[in-house]
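Q: Joint fold for the lines below.
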Amino acid sequence: MDGRLTAGTGATAARPNPGGRSLHRFANPGRFLRATGRLMPFLWAAALLVLGAGLVWGLVLSPADWQQGETVRIMYVHVPMAWLAMGGYTGLAALSVMSLVWRHPLADLTARELSPVGAAATALCLATGSLWGKPMWGTWWVWDARLTSVLVLFFLWLGHAALVRAFDDPERGARAGAILALVGIVNVPIVKFSVDWWNTLHQPASVARLDAPGMHVDILYPLLVCAIGFSLLFAAVVLARTRAAVMERRVRALQLARARREEGAPA
Amino acid sequence: MTRKKRRLMVLLLAGLGLGTATALTLTAFQDNLVFFLSPSDVIAQRPPAERAFRLGGLVEAGSVERVTASDGRPSATFRVTDGPNTITVTYTGVLPDLFREGQGVVTLGRLQPDGSFRASEVLARHDETYMPPEVADALRRAGHWNPAQGAAPPAASWNTAPRQPDGRSGG
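A: Joint structure:
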């Protein structure tokens, strides 16, 4: 009921696209709101529980590294953020394909709400990496292929977030952002394989390797729990933002409809 | 339906073109994308003495000599190796905490006329192994690994090893 109500008003909002398709366009966000509304409490609870357990395990209970000492604990934040930066960007590219090929409005909204969160994860990855690099490598920053490609990834996230908001017509912004996101996807394999293709100061992958992980299980397991916890939190934040954006559009559509009615009344 | 398929095809074609262009560009700039040269690269390329570049490799076991320079600053001489080739490096300044024999390092500096490398900066480059101190000690005691000689043994041989020396499960 609720979903259909806005579906009608949404269609009357000033959207310069072919009519007829409009109803279909806003049918899905209603279903999305209902489904995620039930999911959200569980998602938040799972995120906080898993993340809390992972952080206590990683930051307190797990052993130090034989040569890095306690500094290695930065990894429990740094590595999940790096995975989310890359995985999230792959998700952004998938949303962009849905947006460009199937013109899915929910994909546009999710992409728009995803990029600031992805940018935050990438910024945290860079910041924790810098804090880790100073005591271990002896430098905050070097222009090696891994660090530079992650910085490019950060700028792509920021660029997407800015571009989709730079147009008066949100649909044109979404189109431009989707193209930027898809052009930027070439950077993701470069980030991932930079440490294998070129000499870098950054060490190669420890977990995602063809042979056994180069990490003791007492360090690996808390890392995986942290990664799951941060991923759940990331998903919860993005979904909550997307829900808020859908509701914001509904409110705007309702206000527009009312303004039209009031304008039309005296005539 | 056909319009959606056409848009998908256009995307796939554009992706293919973009991917090819990126791959070609990266291959063309291959030499500029390496952060450091290995001793073998240096011996093959012979960079001119006036050009600063980065030399990277492992610190050879038994090669580190630490002295205090006349002005009181610490100074060190060590050999950087990649297996087949070795270059002697001299450096004045404080070495990073992780610096040790068998550790990866990346040094910035210039080649000297005598073929040695005068570094103005030394960065430590740790490898991708993470292990608790107890496990590293156990490997060393059992003679499976001497960190000064280089990388740890294959991960599968230690990454589930118990942490307590008496064999109780380490978790």
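Q: Anything notable?
A: The two ends of chain A are 31 Å apart (CA to CA). Chain A has eight helices and no strands.
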